[in-house]
Amino acid sequence: GSTYQRNVTVIAMDGSTADWMASACSLLSLRQSFSLVDKFPGAALLITTWHKGKIRYRYTASLGNYIARQ
Asked: Which 3 state secondary structure label does DSSP give 60?
């Protein structure tokens, strides 16, 4: 089983793809997760973990395409 806290958000072309990719990325290593998401054009990944009392963010460069600029 999983021994760490991880929150995974995936943006993909449709909801079912985003859903299964988020589920897979919650179990895969970070390297495998990024590799998987990179295979899908337009997809983006955000992984948030709790590590030594701090929140750590890891994300694909493509996530910037979905962040609103003020």
From this structure: coil
